[in-house]
Design brief:
heterodimer; A: mainly beta; B: mainly beta; six-stranded mixed beta sheet; five-stranded antiparallel beta sheet; 11 strands
């Protein structure tokens, strides 16, 4: 079975440009998460969805960040305009049910973003 | 106070030794606890979960949970160079939190 699929794997963009990261969760998983990882701050939860509905976006750093999940098999994380401090690895992850009940979170391979 | 705290390390142990990784958490209502391993440049992957006080063993790995003291630990016996990675503690209560991870290096 395919895991969580993310694209692009690597992106280098100039400051001010729009960045769109894409994710396909594992089929049948009800929960989808977007995380950002940096050396300084570790793994930060940006937003998560349950059955395509955003549940908690309190981790989204500012209005430049937005996320959508138009259907059960696709989600996007958009940064507009991008800034150098957005450089990080962005992980998409999914879980079959609520991870707070002990269900495993499965991570994609990450999108490595560099904003110059 | 962070929800989940780990010593960032780096922790270095010789091959064959026991590596001990520790994690404390602040939400006393937390019910589920996880250890993820992350190799450099890769994504985190689950290696163990524990829900009840005491020890849980899986091969060379043992997770220990003490809810009264609010800590969870991971012991790696007979450490191998392939165990060199960052180990992330995760705790599930009202929310789901990851620690910042402990970097482990096993020296051949």
């Amino acid at each position: 079975d395919a895991g969580v699929i993310q694209s692009p794997r690597h992106e280098v963009t100039e400051m001010g440009q729009e960045v769109t990261l894409r994710c396909k969760p594992i089929s049948g998983h009800d929960y989808l998460f977007w995380y950002r990882q940096t050396m300084m701050r570790g793994l930060e939860l940006l937003i998560y969805f349950n059955n395509n509905v955003p549940i908690d976006d309190s981790g989204m750093p500012e209005d430049r960040f937005s996320a959508k999940m138009p259907n059960a098999s696709f989600s996007t994380l958009k940064i507009q305009p991008s800034e150098p401090r957005d450089s990080a690895v962005y992980f998409c992850a999914s879980s079959i049910r609520d991870p707070r009940s002990g269900n495993t979170i499965y991570f994609g391979e990450g999108s490595w973003l560099t904003v110059v | 106070q962070k929800e989940v705290e780990q010593n960032s390390g780096p922790l270095s142990v010789p091959e064959g030794a026991i590596a001990s990784l520790n994690c404390t958490y602040s939400d006393r209502g937390s019910q589920s606890f996880f250890w993820y391993r992350q190799y450099s440049g890769k994504s985190p992957e689950l290696i163990m979960s524990i829900y009840s006080n005491g020890d849980k063993e899986d091969g060379r790995f043992t997770a220990q949970l003490n809810k009264a003291s609010q800590y969870v630990s991971l012991l790696i016996r007979d450490s191998q160079p392939s165990d060199s990675a960052t180990y992330l503690c995760a705790v599930a209560g009202n929310q789901f939190y990851f620690g910042t991870g402990t970097s482990l290096t096993v020296i051949p």
